[in-house]
Amino acid sequence: MPNFETPSVNEIFENRKEFIPEVGEQLKNEKKVEIEINGEKLDVDYRIISIESQENKNGDNVVLLPGFGSGWEGISELGFSLACEGRKVIMPSLPGYGNSDDPSENYYKTNNFNNEAKVINQLLEKIGITEDKKVHLVGHSMGSEIMASFAEKYPEKVSSLVLLNPAGVEEKENAIALSSKFVLSGIHTGVEFKMRSAFSGEKDYERELYKHIPKTKSPFMKDRIAQRLAEAKKISEGHLLEKIKKIDCPITYISGELDSIYPPGSEGENISQIARVIESVKNKEYVETSVMKGLRHNTTIAPDEMTAANIDHYLEKAERKQ
After folding, report:
1. Residue 237, C-beta contacts closer than 8 angstroms, at least 6 positions apart
2. What is the pLDDT of residues 106-136, one digit of tens each?
3. Measured CA distances, 207 to 77, 202, 211, 229 (Å)
4. CB of 119 within 8 A of CB of 44?
5. Is 177 exposed, middle or buried (0-12, 13-18, 19+ CB in 10 A)?
């Protein structure tokens, strides 16, 4: 992994607070498109954020997708940090998340994430990202498998794929045990946040950004639980590696050293997650890996600045390979 500087949260806030009003306006303003999946019409909520003075006009756009239980609002902190790195970032809330419409069970009661990939494809088409404009795909946790599904179905539209703390590697995981791991990891992350924020300006930094994010419907409302259970079943079945084997674009694996849900392990362990991902990439010149020290499963929140710098480093490498 490249050696990135890790300034204090106060230093980060001072360097980036001038960009919050610009991005904040982009976060506040509702954007929706109508898509159609298997004859069902659905409104999909999304945001596109960028910073005019920082944007790399020659770089490809980034589609940033959160993991299980989150719409775009849950990954907006990382999106902001990627915008600070010079990227234009597209953040969708898939059907059944955030303020997007709730789909029928025909959408989610499947054994794959192909419908979710179709949603992203239609969204890109509606906002003007056509075949001649490729995008980088960054998916966190469950989002990694969804993005891999997109890369498999629409290879001509993909510059690179970033698997951030990916789900779907282990086959036939116990869904209940997996849910327990998510809960425990969330508790650890929350405690660590409180400890850090007691000695830094982290709360103030987050508050300034989050006050621009509209209220969204909980993904765990009663009428959304059936979809969450179907998704948990799918990620516990482990289809990511079989998808990776069919993808022919640069792939980057990024994880947190202390990820207790999907531990990365080491490249020298044949059964480790990181080793299995590497083995599944058919063109070994296309695979990059990074395990970030001291971080857990949710690398999309503070210190998301380090995650964003790490991601952008590999996006630039992928662009040079084109």
Report:
1. 111, 168, 171, 172, 173
2. 999 999 999 999 999 999 999 999 777 899 9
3. 11, 8, 6, 31
4. yes
5. exposed
Q: What is the CA radius of gyration of the chain?
A: 18
Q: CB under 8 Å to 140, separation ≥6 — which residues?
A: 65, 66, 67, 75, 78, 164, 165, 299, 300
**Whole-angstrom distance, CA of residue 285 vs CA of residue 210:** 39
Task: Specify whether the CB–CB gap between 62 and 87 falls below 8 A.
Answer: yes
Closest alpha carbon to 72 in 151, 143, 16: 143
What is the identity of the amino acid at 146? I
Q: Which domains, from first to last, does the chain contain?
A: 9-321 (3.40.50.1820)
Q: Which residue has the tokens 């930094």?
A: 205
**CA-CA distance, 81 to 182, in Å (whole number)?**
24
Q: What is the pLDDT of residue 130?
A: 78
The rounded distance, in Å, linking the Cα atoms of 81 and 87 is: 9
How many whole angstroms separate alpha carbon 114 and alpha carbon 152?
10
CB distance 231 to 267 below 8 Å: no
189 vs 187: CA distance, rounded Å: 5
- Paired with 275 in beta bridges are none
Distance, CA of 193 to CA of 286 (rounded, Å): 35
Joined tokens for residue 13: 């806030």
| Model-wide pTM > 0.90 | yes
End-to-end CA distance of the chain: 22
CB of 267 closer than 8 Å to CB of 275: yes
DSSP strands (E only) in the chain: 31-37, 40-49, 61-65, 89-92, 135-140, 158-164, 251-256, 287-292
pLDDT tens digits, residue range 242-282? 999 999 999 999 999 999 999 999 999 989 999 999 999 99
For residue 62, the one-letter residue type is V
